[in-house]
Amino acid sequence: QVQLVESGGGLVQAGGSLKLSCVASGSTVSGRAMAWYRQAPGKQRELVAVITSSGSTDYTDSVKGRFSISRDDAKNTVYLLMNSLKPEDTAVYYCAQRRFGAPRYWGQGTQVSVSS
After folding, report:
1. Which of 29, 70, 88, 90 has a Cα-to-Cα distance from 64 of 20 to 30 A?
2. Element (H, E) at 104
3. Secondary-structure percent of the chain, ordered helix, strand, coil, rounded to 5
């Protein structure tokens, strides 16, 4: 059974930075595509960033140039570095392992709140 545990969320002022972590067990982060999603109140969950098994990355347009997804294979951990945070980045952020292009396993989520 794959388990994903996120951490690193919190309250930050606009323009600040946070780094989210997602520790995986039961599967390697290097063997599958890993992703970060977010869900703001009253909105659908959206894909924020993806890192493939080969290390390629992709981002939703609203975070390009500000967010960076990476992984540490030795720690079996995926990260999301978020810079220049905006109030509209406020959401619960979820780590997911993707299989066949879709999220298969989810973490419990971590709250990110950005004050103006």
Report:
1. 29
2. strand 102-106
3. 5, 55, 40
